[in-house]
Amino acid sequence: MVSTTTELISTACNRTPHALDWLDDSLIAFGAGTFVALYNPLEKEEEEVSQGVYATLQGHTKRVNCARFARTGGSGSATRVLVSGSVDATARVWVPVAGSDARAWECAAVLCGHTEAVIAVASVHLAHSGMVVTVTAGTDGTLRVYEYAHDISGGGRREGEGGEKGAPQSLQPVQTLDVGSRNALDVALTVLPAAGTHTGGGDGDGCAVLLATGNTDNRAHLYTRGSAGGEQFEKALALAGHEDWVTSVAFVRFQPDEGADSWRQNTTISHWRPGDIILASGSEDKYVRL
Question: Coil, strand or helix: which one is 173?
C-alpha cells in the first residue's frame, strides 16, 4: 500500500502591510494567498522540528490581508490566539487544537459584520475576565469590536453529528465605530494601569482598554473603554503631527533595564516613567512619532 509524507511546504507571504506576526522563537504566522501559513523560524534537532512552513490554515475565501496574535494586557507578550483578516470581509480566530502538540491549529470563530475587506486586526487578552477583545478595521470605513472567551477552543465550537466538531461559530460585533472616509489603516490595543498604580506589571487585571488607530486623515486616534462588562469605546484624542497617512501604530510599556538610567539624560524622554504606555505611529511621511 502506498503511503505519503510531507517533505516540503513552500509558500510566499502576501504583499500587504500587516500580513505577518511573530509569536515567539517557535512560531511565525503570515498570510499566504487565501491561507494562513505557520512557520517555524528555528530548527530544533532535539525535538526533530525542522525550520520552515509546517502547516497552512484554510478557511478564508479571498486573500489574507493581516494576521496578529492576541497580546496580554500588561506585558504585551503574545498568546496562542491568532486572528486573521481577509478581503472576504471576515476575520477568523485560530487556536491550537485541544490535546494536540500545539502545532495543529483550528478555526474557532468567524468574526462577521464588515461589508468590505478587513485590512487590520488587534486583540488583547484581559486576564481579570478571561476574555479577548478584538478590533478589526475595514475598507468599509468602520471599526468592529468583538469579545469572546480566551479558551474559545474549549467552549466555542459546536459538536456535529457523530461526535465530530462542527463549523466554527459566527460572532457579530458588540460595537461598530464609524470612521467614514478617513479609513483606519492599522489598529493597536493595550490596557491602562489600574487606578492608583503605575507599574504596568499586570496583564489587564481590572484595567480599562486603550485603542489606537492610524488613519488616512494623517492622524492617530485614541479610544478608551472602561473595565466593566458591556462598556463601549469612546473617542478620546486625535493626535496630529504627521503630514501623510498614518499606516502603522503600536503600543509598548516603557520598562528600562534595571539599574540603567541613561534615558534620564535624554531630554526627549527624561520625563518618561517606568510603566508609561508609549504609542508609536508610522506614516507615509517617512517619520515615526512617539
Answer: coil
